[in-house]
Amino acid sequence: MRTHGERLSRVLGCRGCHGKDLQGQNWDNDPKGYGVLWASNLTRAIPAMTDAQLRDVLTKGIHPRRRDLWLMPSQMFQHLSSADVDALIAHLRSVKPAGEATPDPRPGPRALSQIRSGEVKPAAALVRERRDMLPFDAGPSHGLGRYITEVTCVECHGTKLEGRHDEEGSTPDLVVASGYSRAEFDTLLIKGIPSGGRKLKNPLMGQVARSRFSHLTPHERDAVYAYLKARAERPQ
Asked: Which region ranges are annotated with the description Disordered (predicted)?
């Protein structure tokens, strides 16, 4: 279980936000802008939580101590299976405490303005808002592929996988996957290299592929490819 949980921690991006050793990191240090924002040192935070509290953080966006939890992708993780949540928790509990506890985030004026306007919402609100916002259902045979996109791809490509255009950049509708051969799709997910030797419009995909999606198993990559092909070919 712990081995599966360790792999999940990579696929789901835990180490991208909380650091490769899960000891936290400073995401922004601009008191006059977004503020001073830290991702928690999970090796110090997790021992203070029960499994139920940790499950609430992951899947409900509810923190046992803070009033609101920000930037935690619980809106995606609420769709994780119980078995995967259990495996992830087992792995996180196995990591020995190290480093210093990180401070709570201190939002700056820009972040506070976006919070007041509703442009930025706490994790718990996003969980409620997006509970039933799911990608296209291509049927039971594509359940695994859809599940993987629900807990990974929607983060950048939107809840319906139709792409996103905002101040953080542009991402395509994943209908583009239908233009890839299976081998080309593997190269994209493992190395972050698109078909035809093109350059990615959003370089973040390359980083995510190498650090996260490269840890998907061949069977999982098969499932994602088959699902995205089925989605692209659905009746309009």
From this structure: 96-117
155-170 pLDDT, tens digit per residue, is 999 999 999 877 666 8
The pLDDT mean for the chain works out to 93
Q: What is the pLDDT of residue 4?
A: 95
For every residue of 152-216, DSSP letters joined together read TTHHHH-TTSS-EEETTEEE--GGGGGGS-HHHHHHHHHH---GGGPPPSSTHHHHHHHHTGGGS
Average pLDDT on 108-134 reads 94
Architecture of domain 140-232: Orthogonal Bundle (1.10)
pTM beyond 0.85: yes
